[in-house]
Structure formats: C-alpha cells, structure tokens
Write a structure and sequence with these properties.
This protein is 30% helix and 19% strand. The chain is α+β, with helices and mostly antiparallel strands and 443 residues long.
C-alpha cells in the first residue's frame, strides 16, 4: 500500500513532508530525480512515449502536472493511500509525466488551462480517448475528482482502445481545431520570456510556462488590440453545474443531481443517469463533458446525448443551450481572474454581501452589492488603492452598471465592455455614504 501512495504522489505532484522545507527549485529537481529513478513514468518526453506506444500497442496516459503550482490542490492523500485499483490499470498504458507546458503541442493538448493537473488518454496515432481532471474552486477538488472516478476513466479508455478500429470515427471530435499558435512560447506575450523547454542548467522554475499562462496569452491578444475577449475564452470549459448538472466525481459522467428549473432539467436529464455520449463522443469523465460544452456555440446550440438510466434503459436527449448560456458559469475562482482584476477592478477582490449585510447597509434587492475584501498594493494591481478605494468599501455601481450581482458578472462585463486606458466611475458605499472613484482600465 505504501508503494501505491508513492506512485500517486508522483502522478499528482504531492510532495512529502520533508519537501515542505524545500524551495520550489529544489522540489522540481527532486521530482525529476525521483520519477526518473523509479522508471515507471516517462519523464517529460512525449516523443519517447509515442514511440513506445507504437512498438507495444499500448494506449498512452499523459499527466500534465506543473510542479511549482503546489498550492493548486490534488486528489486527497487518504484516498490515494487506500485505493488498490489504479496501478494495475496504469500498467496497461505507456505513462508519461509532463511537468511544464514549454513546447507543448497545442494542436493536440487542449484543456482547461486554469488547472495545473490534467490527464489525457490517447492512442499512439494521436487520437484522444478522453480527458480527466476538473476543478470549480480555487482550493477544493472534492466534488470534481476522485480516485474512483480516475479508475473508471482509465478503464473506459482501455475499453475504447480495444475497440479502436470500430469507434475511431466517434473520437474525431475529441481533438479541437488548431489554436492561434502551435505551442505556448510562440504567443506574443510569452515569446521573449520563455523557450520551448525547461532550463535545468539555470533557474528551472522561472523557465517554466505555467498552464494558466497559455489562457492568459490567448486573452492578451484581444485585450492588447482593445477587442472584447470572446465568450469561449472568457468562459472556458464551462462546468456542468453551470447548466444544471451536478456530476458524481466517483462515476464515469454520471449525474448525481439535476438542478431544478435548469437547462439540464428542461432537457430531461435525471438523477442517476450516465451520459454515455455527448454529440456522439463517448465520455469517460466530467472533463469530457466540459470538453463538449467548451466546443458548443456561445450564441446557442443543440447537443445530442445518449443516456443510460438507472434501470439500464437508453434514451436520446436533445439539449438546447440558449444564447448567452455560458455566462452562467463562475469565472471568479479561476487563476485567470487575477488578470481580470488587474484589467477591470484595479486590483480589487470582491465578495457578494449576504442578505443580512445587504439589509444592514440598506441596499435594495436587485442592486449591486460587492464588498471589497482586498485591494492590491503593488504595480498595476494597486490602481484601485491609488484611486482611494479601501477594504470594506461596498461596490454598488461600475461604469453606470448597477446590476452586476457577482464578482464573475462584473469581471466578465468589464473585460467585454471596457478597453485599456479607459477611465470608469465606480460607486462605493463607505460608512453609509455614497462616494465615487475613478479607476483606470488596464491591458
């Protein structure tokens, strides 16, 4: 059992207690040494993994895990320590561990870049079987991933691999269209700072392109040209719960609960249903559901689902997504929200007032009421501070808008309707008095 824990500690970047005293630089180098010494995972060498898969006939599992991002949570260690099923499954794959996105082929590896852990299961010919790894909170993954869910995703990929010749056509949609650039270091905001590989001979941590920097670089293209950030980039990989599906992290695209009066309930999804396919794509995990949602048209779309009910019966569902459906997702938890706060709020971090706090502040229902919980102190994140905004101010208006009810709505509206160097008025409630400050929008 101890060896099982050790294996998963490597998969998910869990560092032992001794490592707590290490610098990030030491952790990255130690991780490399340990993984290479054990020899189970191919370390940071995708060409070798593809070659080995071709020669052995095995499928490939690629774990993308940025070691410096240790604060980004991982699967619970207790679950890792007690689960006996994962290693035998992994032994049926060619396993490769990728610890940075430098040089990553973005025509193949497309995923939610606000995460620092993502898993791909694929064929040696680059056909993707599925993805695993979902997050909807900055510090908690409890409702999104589990070892049981991982085991089912791995087994599902193995099943697809055995039937590959018959189902290959259904897997085409699991690979997306080419992005703006073929690899991260070629994006304008990254190309003068990074190369296509980690610099182990120097400061390896500083040479690493983190996952979230890919998304930031893609959005920077639009912001630098004073264009609105498209909805597909602003609301990437919509979480199923944003459209009414609470998924079971222990299942294989299995519905734990359907939110009443949601897009999912209107379509006819039921608690306990397993979504076997969505838009003809077989599903292995919550991440696979997100992949299909990410490809859906923000202006409205119809998805087809093949669903197996708890009584083992099958039915087809047409899932209609109206215009603006993506805006229901929450982007405020994401790493990318740090950049949005710089662009839009001048470094303010905001939180929704409770009903009791709203009543005490005498703010009417339906009017914006966002408490300033933090004001940045340095550089471009200190713009609000320099403008005179303080912690505990209550934001009640932004650029003439008074109905942006959540931090997510405010950030999304701001990066869509403002441009860099624009000055906007913000209305604040401080000690019962309404005051106005001017905030400079930034790139």
């Amino acid at each position: 059992m101890k060896s099982c824990w050790s294996l998963f500690a490597l998969i998910l970047g869990c560092l032992n207690v001794v490592a707590d005293a290490q610098t990030r630089e030491e952790k990255v180098r130690d991780d490399r040494q340990r993984v290479v010494a054990e020899g189970f995972w191919i370390y940071n060498d995708l060409p070798r993994a593809f070659a080995q898969a071709k020669s052995t006939g095995k499928p490939i599992v690629v774990t993308l895990r940025c070691i410096p991002c240790e604060e980004c949570v991982k699967l619970d260690d207790d679950l890792v320590d007690t689960d006996p099923t994962i290693r035998p499954l992994l032994e049926q794959f060619v396993c490769v561990r990728v610890v940075s996105t430098n040089g990553l082929d973005l025509s193949l590896f497309q995923y939610d870049t606000d995460q620092s852990f993502a898993m791909f299961m694929l064929n040696a010919d680059r056909t993707i079987y599925g993805r695993f790894g979902t997050r909807s909170h900055r510090t908690e993954w409890v409702g999104d991933v589990s070892l049981k869910g991982l085991a089912k995703a791995l087994q599902g990929a193995l099943d697809l691999h055995k039937d590959f010749d018959n189902i290959k056509g259904r897997l085409v949609g699991k690979t997306g269209p080419a992005l703006e650039y073929s690899s991260p270091e070629k994006y304008p905001s990254l190309k003068d700072k990074f190369t296509d590989r980690l610099q182990y001979e120097g400061d390896v941590v500083k040479s690493c392109i983190h996952c979230h920097q890919i998304g930031d670089a893609r959005r920077d293209i639009y912001r630098s040209q004073k264009q609105p950030i498209p909805a597909k980039l602003l609301f990437p990989f919509p979480h199923p719960k944003s459209v009414g599906l609470i998924m079971d992290p222990n299942g294989r695209a299995t519905i734990k609960e359907v939110v009443a009066d949601s897009l999912a309930s209107s379509a006819g999804f039921k608690t306990g249903d397993r979504i076997e396919s969505l838009n003809e794509q077989p599903l292995l995990s919550i991440a696979d559901v997100q992949w299909v949602l990410d490809a859906a048209d923000p202006s409205g779309d119809v998805l087809t689902a093949q669903v197996r009910a708890t009584d083992d019966s099958l039915r087809k569902i047409e899932w209609r997504l109206p215009a603006g459906w993506r805006q229901a997702d929450d982007i405020a938890w994401r790493v990318s929200s740090w950049g949005y706060r710089r662009m839009v709020t001048g470094g303010m971090k905001l939180a929704v007032l409770s009903a009791e706090e709203r009543t005490k502040a005498k703010i009417s229902e339906g009017k914006m009421a966002l408490r300033v919980t933090h004001v940045g102190k340095y550089g471009p994140h200190a713009v609000a501070k320099r403008a005179g905004v303080t912690e505990d101010d209550i934001l009640t208006g932004f650029a003439g808008q008074a109905d942006l009810m959540t931090p997510s709505q405010l950030l999304a509206w701001g990066v869509t309707h403002t441009t860099p160097q624009q000055m906007v008025d913000v209305e604040l409630l401080r000690n019962g008095k309404v005051i106005t400050k001017k905030i400079l929008m930034q790139q």
